[in-house]
Amino acid sequence: MFSGKQTKPTFKSYLPPLQTDLKKSPQLPIKKLEAKLLPGEIVVNESNFVRKCIGAESCQDDLWGKLVCTNFKVSFIAHNSLAQQRFQCTHRLLGEHDIPLACVEQVVTVNDVKGKQKILGSNQKLKFNPTELILYCKDFRIIRFRFDEAGPESAKKVCLAIAHYSHPADPQLLFGFEYVGKRYHGSTGERVNGVDPGGGLQTPLFDCSSDWDREIKRTGASEWRVCTVNQGYFISPSLPEFFVVPVSLADQDLKQYACCFYSQRIPLWCWNHSSGSALVRMSNISDPQQQRKVEQRISSAITKSHPLRSDVFKSDLDKNLPNIQDIQTALLKLRQICVIDSFEESEEKWLSSLESSRWMEYVRTFLRHAVEVVYMLESRHVSVILLEKEDRDLSCVISCLVQLMCDPHCRSLHGFQGLIQKEWVMAGHRFLDRCNHLKKNDKEESPVFLLFLDCVWQLWNQYPAAFEFTEVYLTVLGDSLWVPVFSTFLFNCPRQRAEHSRDFASSKSIHLGQDQALCFPPVWDWSQQFSLKDQTLFNNPLYVGKIATCVQNGTVKTFTHRRSKKNYSSTLRGLPSALRNGSLGPNDTLSRRNSLVLRLRSDLSQVREQQETPSERFVRDFFSRPVDLQGLLLPQLLPSHLSVWKLYFLRWVPEAQIPQGGPITAFHKLSVLTDEIEMLQNQLRQYQGAAGTPNNLHTEHSKMYFKATSTPHQPPAPPEYLSSSFPFSPVGNLCRPGVLGTPLSKLLNGAKIWLSTETLANETI
Amino acid sequence: MEESGSVDSVESLCSSTTTRSDRSNGTRVSDTELRSKGRAIQKVYKDPSKAELTLLPEEVIQDSAKDVTYICPFIGPVRGSLSVTNYRLFFRCTDREPVFRLDLPLGVLSRVEKIGAATSRGDVSYGLACKDMRNLRFVHKEPEDSLKKSVFEFLMKFAFPVSNNMSLFAFEYKQVFPENGWRVYDPLAEYKRQGLPNESWRISKVNDHYELCDSYPAALVVPVTITDDELRRVSSFRAKGRIPVLSWIHPESQATVVRASQPMVGQNGRRCKEDEKLLQAIMDANAQSHKMFIFDARPSVNAAANKMKGGGFESEDAYQNAELVFLDIHNIHVMRESLRKLKEVVYPTIEDSHWLSNLESTHWLEHIKLILAGALRIADKVESGKTSVVVHCSDGWDRTPQLTSLALIMLDSHYRTIRGFQILLEKEWLSFGHRFQQRVGHGDKNHTDADRSPIFLQFIDCVWQMTRQFPAAFEFNEYFLITILDHLYSCLFGTFLCNSEQQRLKEEVPKQTVSLWSFVNSQLEEFVNPLYVHFPSHVLFPTVGIRHLQLWVTYYIRWNPRMVPQEPVHQRYKELLAKRAELQKRVEELQREAANRTASSSSERAGSPTRSITPVQTFV
Question: Where do the catalytic residues lie (chain B) (predicted)?
């Protein structure tokens, strides 16, 4: 496409030919292009006169500017700004065209004249001058820069710098350290970055025993206690300092058992069902000789903690669920069909390719497994142990899903954040390895957390009014994995965080003041990334407007299930056994070649074969009753009922965008209505309260992103910029060859695929 | 849905055929309140607690049998009693808790078959294949007395009245509704809404007595420059006499959507100068463009093959300035086969492991995509290109109405309202002679008839796909679409009977039967999409990629008991509306109170705390 052909002056024309787009180099008044730097951020290398590709077919929309590599991000500072729609929120840490280095998956340099291409790693050499740089990002973006007008040397240098800095050799080279460390430079204790270790947050971090105490009280787990044997991480390197165990197990016992478990991980309590059944996670017992004994002791302790002394059910996750490599493979395939393959070619085989990626299948498997566990807790009233070799990946997903289904508190924003804190961060999910921030060991990389978010999204999609947050929230949360400044996602376990923070502080001779270690902000401090206004995109109008009795975090309150247990027992206790066992027998030997007969017969045989299991019956019973959004929620698991999380996976694909459409248009309408309700409630409050209070109708922060208009009697029109990708935008974020950027070709895209008789060239208006 | 007698129980006239997917289970008070208004009419017919059979006016029980076993593919055999009326099949099992019932109009049956011979026990089995994506199977004792007819013989008789020289139940059903749905569509009023006739277009009476074309409506809009005589000559050149006539005109650019059937070009490349003149006149009527597009819905190969049978397509020589585009949409047989495969994939059970590739192999979504893509191109040419288009397929009564009506929905927001959509169906489908009788096979036992095809279902599916992409752009909800499809088969209403306007008049359908719109428009609340926002000039351009198309599970998979209506956003929205109305009332009361107080206590003047607040609109 960037053919070097330039229009030559012909003898007819004595004027130089009109400059093509290519030649329209920046002759604009030289604006000072400086990267915006965060505290601790330094520029490593930069190159001027770089072009960022916006559309693939023509370069007329391309942006000119400066490409900068810092120790945090790849920044592009454009001369001109994009006329088209883009990301609607302003990210506080990242500019419009910035990509955090941690988000860069692959750095590809191309020289299209020489036809060369190279994937750059750390400390590598590049034998050609790149004309093009393609960044494949972990969040599915593909970003391209052209160096046609840039100095060849500086282009090469900036590419090498990006490649090098996106492969940090040591965790402490991750930008978060410099960023947070800067807080302690200069005058002591001054909050340079506004870093708040969580003091002002409503989300419990579960890094102190009081958070656990509250959780025990909230769930009514009176037979469980907070255990402090691991303070200073002396027992287990990967467990948190505080966790919860059965009261019947003394610290001495725990210390004794610890050595039998993988990585000395003493089984962890996750949550209690209102019936008293507990959810516990446990790693494998490494010593086979001790296995039976220890297992028995643990089980009996859990049994003792159950009000009914019920049995314990062990759920082996490794056996029933895909492993982390499977999950990684699935995501790579999914990415291939979503953003790398050409849209049109992948279109025909989309469904079967989607199936063969197995991503959706895995999402379903996890959800289904969680439902099985819920069944044991809810219906069989037994405690459940989630058993996984290391107890640091699959159990995080399952235990969270179980709690999301059972406990409405987890569906509130703070409840959900606390849940992730509890089951992922504190339980020691290896975020550093799974994100592969150091790009050292690809085998350890796995999008377990993204898979979890997708499972949550499926639940959310089926019960949108049961969650306080939106899918934008889930998407942004997923993206935050790649902004390496948050305590939440930077480390493999709490101990690693403590150690690195300490080491870094001492190596840089930072005076920590009162703090024990560097305090990284948790991702839950959303003001780090977004303004309050933008954060309102996280608020689900369906939930906010609910005026539901949502359990507030912190307050001690046991939730109750409104659906009484009785409901489950009475119905459909099976069919008259006579019917099932034989009285129909002879009819089965029907013979006729009619296809209908065959089909009907297979129907019948299916009935016979598929004896409903008790858990299936449990699920069916659940669905035969009205759903209580503040009670148990089970997902629909028919494969036809799970969808692709389009906002996450397809937001960058221009062809997949629905201009002025998509679920966001309904969200807009709901948001406005909820805002009106809030206004009315405020009014009422004013009337009921002091009459003299200022008549401030819109209290400064409404919870809704879209506000009711001041012009009544006219439903507000959805803004023009809304699209199915909102608040994200494909513009400039997905530049693979063959992408058609112009609106018309996009419109006609569907038809074009099937078109044999007409060339696209004719498609002009 | 196969009601397990559960909470939601029976609705609407065709009873349990229609699932209320759009509604959650009626637990919330506000919801019940909201709905109660719409219920008055239905009330008579239902009593969910007893799950008794309540008959419609003129409905008569023909036969009943106890001890019939329904072999449910989901929960296994269920023993109960079965009744057959002249309208429905009703099966009920009271031994179970909750009560199990099956209630379906006989119209949905496409075949009833006795399977196998009676066994030693005297049991005999019957299979019922339905037009609405399910199969039913019953086992029943053969009556001892061989002279006595089985209940299933009554079923055969009343399920296929046409084959048995009886009339459809629609002709007996005499329910009176507050509104007469037959008055919904008045062609002249509709053309007037579009600003027709105008200086370029006239309404011709040449087909007043269906002499020009028996499958076209009486009122036709044609260019003023073409005389009726010329139209007659054109009609001999177009298949089945279906000449190019106007469907819709753009209010600003005057670009038009014109529909027709294929030209009878044949192998020798026949030409018709009147036809050429007509198309030129259509182009000339639009000053904005010197070009026009002819959209042939067929794949080019099929179009070419039609030349063998005398048909074909417009040649570029004969029609200068016209560009011909093939839209590659397959014929009725391909579509029928695709739906058959889809039924295999979704009923009764869905195979867990290969769902997506199985779905792909049915090609159903691919066909949906092609149709939507074709309509999108048409709409784009008219809206963005300001160019007039002519749309045809072979006969112009299957793919053509699919394309024109979808394009019209994209172009004209009027057709996205409930009444507008009814008008669209009446106009593009019914008056222009989509052969409903043939395609659906009302009351006809000949289930292998090659003329049957789910063309209309496909169209409704396309509309549903658009409602998914633009949740606030349509006044109607999903339940409306499902209701239409259920009554497409039920034969309770006259709306979808016969093949053409002429036939319907001959059979006195409007006089003898009730219109579906009478029923619908008498309880509109049920069908309203609360998220709807009316934007008069908003053109919809859906994204037709397969990534954005989804199987309409709430229709195709609704019989599966694992398929439960999901907690719908609409429901929540209605609750919020109710909440707002309540708050508004209270605020207004307080305002009035405060105003009274200030007025009475003292005329202290206007520092009043009751500064009037933006009155919020109440629309439900």
Answer: 393
